[in-house]
């Protein structure tokens, strides 16, 4: 994947982040409920429109699919390459004012993400990854032109026994997550907001795993998957099967896991997921 395309995507993500952060700080957004009862704000819609226009200018020949601008299956069923965007991942965190929300964009090629960027506006932090490009973190709070920090999942000293750090949502039922894990392994939880940010915690080694139970869409995992994979981890369904993109009319994901150190026997950590 060409480095110039990654750099152009980084610029678009930062510009979108500035737009979203302005709405967040001014609190000048409205909130409505979508058909599935999930919230959407006027900031989500503004970010979606901005990203659609910017990506179409960048690559006029590549279609764009946004969570807030869905394309009918009859139109997208033959897409081999397209942009997949989540204008604000963590809308509830945006509304509640925690700051733990992100903008996520992935380039999907032949049903798999090959380039991804996740921008955390309140921290001015960009996570990025691409096939052949590795995974990096860039902290723009330190400089307008920061040096990329390579990311790699955490390597445990003892993959069979060391305490695992699990990223978990403040708004998820923690008991349900704990019930899916073996009780024989010591676990410590760290909490943050959006799916994308929790996946990035695994990619940069500040967490070892993340289990998502409940409804998500393909836009929640596209950018995260390529970043995590380029950092040495995996993003799989709860049944340890690959996640694919634009294979069916439905854009819904199964429950999924983000897994770090490949030497860990994750089947032993999450045995109940296969029951």
Features:
single chain, about 280 residues, alpha+beta, Fructose-1,6-Bisphosphatase, Chain A, domain 1, D-Maltodextrin-Binding Protein, domain 2, 2 domains, five-stranded mixed sheet, 14 strands, about 25% strand, globular
Give an overview of the whole structure.
The radius of gyration is 18 Å and the shape is globular. 29% of the residues lie in helices and 27% in strands. The protein has 275 residues and is α+β, with helices and mostly antiparallel strands. The protein has two domains: 148 residues, Fructose-1,6-Bisphosphatase, subunit A, domain 1 (Fructose-1,6-Bisphosphatase, Chain A, domain 1), CATH 3.30.540.10; 111 residues, 3-Layer(aba) Sandwich (D-Maltodextrin-Binding Protein, domain 2), CATH 3.40.190.80.
Give the helices and strands, then pairings.
Layout: H1 3-26, E1 31-33, E2 39-41, H2 42-58, E3 64-66, H3 73-76, E4 81-89, H4 91-96, E5 102-109, E6 112-120, E7 125-130, E8 134-139, E9 149-150, E10 164-169, H5 174-179, E11 187-192, H6 195-203, E12 209-212, H7 222-230, E13 234-237, E14 256-259, H8 266-269
Parallel strand pairs: 3-4, 10-11, 10-12
Antiparallel strand pairs: 1-2, 4-5, 5-6, 6-7, 7-8, 8-9, 12-14, 13-14
Distance between the termini: 39 Å
Main β-sheet, spatial strand arrangement:
3-4-5-6-7-8-9
Q: Tell me about the largest β-sheet.
A: 7 strands, mixed
The amount of beta strand, in percent, is: 25-35%
Structural class: alpha+beta
* Rg, Cα atoms, Å: 18 Å
Shape: globular
Q: Give the class-level CATH name of the largest domain.
A: Alpha Beta
What count of structural domains?
2
Averaged pLDDT: 94
How do the helices and strands follow one another from N- to C-terminus? HEEHEHEHEEEEEEHEHEHEEH
CATH topology of the largest domain: Fructose-1,6-Bisphosphatase, Chain A, domain 1
Instruction: Please give the CATH architecture of the largest domain.
Output: 2-Layer Sandwich
Number of strands: 14
What share of residues is helical?
25-40%
Count of DSSP helices? 8
Task: Pick out the low-confidence regions.
Answer: none
Binding site for Mg(2+) 1: 67, 86, 88-89
Binding site for Mg(2+) 2: 86, 89, 220
Subcellular location: Cell inner membrane
Enzyme class: hydrolase
């Amino acid at each position: 994947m060409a480095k110039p395309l990654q750099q152009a995507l980084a610029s678009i993500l930062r510009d979108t982040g500035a737009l979203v952060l302005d709405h967040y700080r001014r609190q000048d957004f409205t909130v409505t409920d979508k058909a599935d009862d999930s919230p959407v704000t006027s900031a989500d819609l503004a970010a979606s429109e901005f990203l659609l226009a910017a990506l179409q200018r960048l690559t006029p020949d590549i279609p764009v699919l946004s969570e807030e601008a869905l394309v009918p299956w009859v139109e997208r069923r033959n897409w081999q390459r397209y942009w997949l965007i989540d204008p604000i991942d963590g809308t509830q965190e945006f509304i509640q004012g925690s700051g733990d929300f992100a903008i996520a964009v992935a380039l999907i090629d032949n049903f798999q993400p090959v380039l991804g960027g996740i921008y955390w506006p309140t921290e001015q932090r960009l996570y990025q990854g691409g096939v052949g490009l590795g995974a990096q973190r860039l902290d723009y709070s330190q400089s307008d032109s920061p040096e990329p920090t390579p990311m790699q999942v955490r390597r445990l000293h003892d993959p069979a026994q060391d305490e695992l750090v699990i990223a978990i949502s403040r708004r998820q039922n923690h008991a349900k997550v704990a019930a899916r894990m073996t009780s024989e392994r010591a676990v410590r939880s760290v909490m943050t907001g959006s799916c994308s940010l929790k996946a990035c915690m695994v990619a940069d080694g500040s967490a070892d795993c993340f289990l998502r139970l409940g409804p998500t869409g393909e836009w929640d995992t596209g950018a995260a998957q390529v970043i995590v994979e380029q950092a040495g981890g995996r993003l799989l369904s709860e049944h340890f099967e690959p996640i694919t993109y634009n294979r069916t009319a439905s854009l819904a994901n199964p429950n999924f896991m983000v897994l770090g150190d490949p030497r860990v026997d994750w089947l032993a950590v999450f045995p109940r997921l296969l029951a």
